[in-house]
Amino acid sequence: MENVISIALNISLAIHLILIAVCVWRVWQGENHVDRIIGLDMNATLIMAVLVLIALTTMNPVYLDIALGLAALGFIGIVALARYIADHRMF
């Protein structure tokens, strides 16, 4: 049973890394600012998921703390960037 979980975690990690590459491509080749912001937000979410998968694989809870900090910083950053694009001012 433990072997099946390990295989599932590794397959999930590979899928998430492929999706990160797709999001980076979308940020790089985005048609407008909204597409790029969505790509950045999705990229941050996928990186959080990868950190959680690494925490489950290595049984090291430090990665969960890093993922939680990334979630807070990513949310604040995306909101600030969206407000800057909408109003052309940061605060």
Summarize this structure as a short list of keywords or feature phrases.
3 helices, elongated, mainly alpha, 91 residues
Explain how this protein is built.
The chain has 91 residues and is mainly α. It has helices at residues 2-28, 33-58, 62-87. It has one domain (2-87). The model has no long low-confidence stretch (mean pLDDT 90).
Provide a compact summary of the structure.
The protein has 91 residues and is mainly α. Helices cover 87% and strands 0% of the residues.
Principal-axis shape equals elongated
Largest beta-sheet details: none
CA-CA gap between termini = 52 Å
How much of the sequence lies in strands comes to under 5%
Class derived from helix and strand content? mainly alpha
What is the count of helical runs? Answer: 3
Order of helices and strands: HHH
Unreliable stretches covering 5 or more consecutive residues: none
- Helix content range of the residues, please? over 70%
Which radius of gyration do the C-alpha atoms yield? 16 Å
Mean pLDDT, to the nearest integer, reads: 90
Number of domains: 1
What is the count of β-strands? Answer: 0
Topology record:
Layout: H1 2-28, H2 33-58, H3 62-87
